[in-house]
Amino acid sequence: MKDLKYEFYIAGTPEEVWKALISPEGTKQIYYGSVIRSTFQVADFLEYVGPGVDGDETVHVYGNVLEYEPNQVLRFTHYTGKSYMKDDHEFESRISYLLEPIGPCTKLTLIHDQWKEGDPHYENSIKAWWIILNNTKTLVETGSSLDFGEGS
């Protein structure tokens, strides 16, 4: 399976982009009400939790922190939550957020790689990342996320 790689240029500092990607205030807007729970220490657990099929505490995605440098890098293993897949450890992949200052802007690179052959979430991830990254860019630049009409 092909690696997914996206590059976005955002009119904001790395600190502003990082806050959108990591803080509860940012992630709730980008990830439909979900927050990240983690100490962000390397090897520690990380999970995106929010409203879903299991109520307000649905674990959508989880894994372990591989690398964490504030305002620069967040890299973690990626598993889909148990409510989406019974054998949730069958398909592991890796997600990397990389931030680089470019003048007064920030280059945000998202890499979702190390896919296992036959991962049923691959195709959905291709579509979902565009929404998440556009939401991130819009949130940093305008203070609001996009309304895709989902859940309406």
From TrEMBL:
Xref: InterPro entries: ASHA1/2-like_C, START-like_dom_sf
Residue ranges annotated for the Activator of Hsp90 ATPase homologue 1/2-like C-terminal domain, each copy included: 13-131
SUPFAM superfamilies: Bet v1-like
Gene3D superfamilies associated with the record: 3.30.530.20
Entry's family note: Belongs to the AHA1 family.
Name of the protein in question: Polyketide cyclase
